[in-house]
Amino acid sequence: MSTIESINSVLKNLANAIPGQIDGTVIASTDGFVISDTLTGEEAEEVAAMVATTMGVSKRMSLTLTAGDVEETSIKGENRSVFMYRVGGEGVLAVIAAGDANVGMINLRARSAADKIKAYLADPSTASA
Questions:
Q1: Above 80 in pLDDT, residue 58?
Q2: If you average pLDDT over residues 81-101, what whole number do you get?
Q3: Which domains does the chain have, with CATH numbers?
Q4: I need a labelling partner for 29 at 20 to 30 A (CA). Which of 21, 36, 55, 110 fits?
Q5: What pLDDT sits at residue 90?
Q6: Sign of CA dihedral 107, 82, 89, 59
Q7: Dihedral sign, CA of 74, 106, 96, 115?
């Protein structure tokens, strides 16, 4: 199995673990390019760029406040929320969820997914394991 196929499997399992809660996911590189996604159409490229920018701003704020490395950040909207998790130095996992989604369950499952994806991006040979 290729690295992208392994990542796609993690994203699919994440959505299946919380049925009806996750609208889509994006793995964005730190410079805003799509690595993998479950969104449709051109939306993924735009979301990936915004995710990278948001994490960059979060990193700058964290440095200013001497809060340490940014592990995750989120945006809660009226109709949807976006949860972003650092995936090593390589990228960011963004989970787009319904406004009334179970935040605790998303955090629990997404953190685990981010750890798996981090391993695949750091060492692609683990993807075939």
A1: yes
A2: 94
A3: 3-123 (3.30.450.30)
A4: 21
A5: 84
A6: negative
A7: positive
Q: In what order do the strands lie in the sheet with 34-37?
A: 34-37, 22-29, 91-98, 80-87, 72-76
pTM over 0.90: yes
Which distant-in-sequence residues (6+ apart) come within 8 Å of 16 by Cβ?
Answer: none
Q: Which of 127, 103, 106 is nearest to 116 (CA)?
A: 127
Judging by DSSP bridges, how do beta strands 34-37 and 72-76 pair with one another? unpaired
Query: Which residues partner with 75 through β-bridges?
Result: 82
pLDDT of 69 over the 70 cut: yes
Please name every residue paired with 98 in a beta bridge, in sequence order, or none if there are none: 80
User: Where do we find the tokens 């909207």?
Assistant: 77
Phi, psi (deg, nearest 5) at residue 91: -175, -165
Instruction: State the pLDDT at residue 125.
Output: 75
